[in-house]
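Final report, results section. Input specification for complex C-07:
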Amino acid sequence: MIEFKNVSKTYAGSDNPVVENLSFEIADGEICVLVGPSGCGKTTSMRMVNRLIEPTEGEIIIDGQKNTDMSGTELRRKIGYAIQQTGLFPHRTIADNVGTVPKLLGWDKSRTASRADELLDLVGLPPDQYRDRYPAELSGGQQQRVGVARALAADPPIMLMDEPFGAVDPITRDRLQNEFLHIQEDIKKTIVFVTHDIDEGIKMGDKIAILKEGGVLAQYDTPENILARPASDFVQSFVGGDRVLKRLSLTLVGDIDLEPANGNSGDLPHIDEKWNLKDALSEIIGAGADRGLVVTGGDGAEGGNGGSRGTITLDSIRKISHGSEVPRG
Amino acid sequence: MDSADDPPTSTLALLFQSEFASEEQQNQGFIDWGWLADNFTEDVVPAFFQHIFLCFVSLGIALVIAVPLGILCARYRALYTPVTLITGFFYTIPSFAMFTLLIFIVGFSVGKTPAIIALVLYSLLVMVRNVVTGLDSVPPETKDAAKGMGLTDRQILFGVELPLALPVIVAGMRIAMVTVIGIAVIGAYIGAGGLGDLIFDGITRDFPTLWFTGAVLSTLLAIGADLVFVRIERMLSPWSRRARGAT
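Structure output:
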């Protein structure tokens, strides 16, 4: 668990704090997204966890221990670190890059090498093909995969990620996000995840901390609750006018109660049960229907070959969009 | 200082006249191949190696000074301007003036020492500047990631910054080396030896074979050194070469 206790940061020569009296807790195994406009101190807050920046006031407690109890370098070797520009070492091979922290910790060569292979596999880069290449030979998305693998190398319980999927095109980003969420299901790290993109925050976060300018915490809650009950006008405008749709994007079609399909369902648009409600809504409206046929497996839009589980109606989606309790997919 | 009773000048004049085997004064065309064949290993080869020795020692000393100085300048930016001014000042002093100053003002005796000092001073500007440029060229996010993963400052300097700066540093050595090979020729004027001896002696005695050999060899040496350093530069940055090859 990571606890921020009344943490403030003011740079020398400035009157305005970049982070002001920040207090919140991040539970073990959760992704906590720090999000807000530029200048809200989200990156500063993250960098105070591993003491790349020291707070002016307050303290950060990790698993009951102050993070100042050990040296900065010792602390940083125990915390994974991945950043937007990846910061891969251009002069070292992919395997050497991934093995950076294990090497610092004095692992022997074969253990470091096999760990690097294991992690490259995990992030979808076949080790045989990639371990001996240099970063500049990889695409942006591949480099970010390596950045994540490198942060995971010594299996740290905590990871800091500063827009780790920021520098790639939207399609690649979406794929990297999905893959990382999938990996997180297994590894269950405690993650501080910084982004300026509220949609990424909603997708990635178990909890979201919305910061506003001057480093003040505007709201700290689950994505569902923030979208359902924004604490202030600032939060409401920050999450955007489409917050109802964003909430729908948090729920999968397969997780809600469906109505049985009746006879003439041939004309209905097909909805994959793995889709979220926002996509389902879009599909139904786009087809000019008032309901869609939910199918399992296969490609819903192309008249999937999987079995049908029932229908989903515009009405039921509307009801969910008004309700406060939405099951989390 | 051309007056006959000026002792250092007459020493210099003596130096040139006694250096090489005297040729039989029959002029057989521009190049006296016979003389060259007879005296090649005795006169030309030692002068060639003396020249290389002068340049390598100077460059080595310059490197030992420039790398720490460049690191300091990169760390403490306020140092960079004064260091550039001072080394830039050395660089602008004409080579004849520099050699003369070192002997008549600083008081070195004629020989290799003042020549090496001059060559080191000429190299410093380029070398320090390239060390700083090299260190500056390391992407900030690479340093940030290194620090964020728990590398110490020393590990970042030796494991990340210097290796990445190395090609630029070597590029500086290459320029310095070529410059120094040229200036070292003038060093013969103060008795440093090297290929300049052949040139000066050839001019003094109106014997083209000598000065032509000196000129050709010093040019070849400069070109050769340039090529070798280009090769070293490439060798030290396999990552960038492969990146260029990648799509």
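Residues 170-187 of chain A form the longest helix (18 residues). The CA atoms of residues 80 and 246 of chain A lie 30 Å apart. This concludes the modelling results for the funded period.
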